[in-house]
Design brief:
With about 70 residues, the chain is an all-alpha fold. It has one domain. The longest helix is centred in the middle third of the chain and has 29 residues. It starts with 13 loop residues before the first helix and ends in a 13-residue tail after the last helix.
């Protein structure tokens, strides 16, 4: 979680000088897992919206015709 290499201001930057060191102290593997799971659940939600729209817009296929037998 070290973004300092990408920052031009270095330690003078609020993010690099304050926020990132704080996050590095409190950010544990469990936190990473929670955020990763959150991303996965968000993407699954988007996928369900897309699937719903595809099913709504796709023409309904008939599976056959009903024939009465005497």
């Amino acid at each position: 979680m070290d973004e300092k290499a990408n920052c031009v201001a270095g330690s003078n930057c609020l993010i690099c000088g304050t926020v990132m060191p704080l996050l590095n102290k409190v950010w544990v593997d469990a936190t990473q897992n929670h955020f990763r799971n959150s991303q996965l659940e968000f993407l699954k939600g988007v996928r369900s919206l897309i699937d719903f729209q595809i099913n709504r817009l796709a023409p309904q296929e008939t599976k056959g015709t009903r024939v009465s037998v005497e």
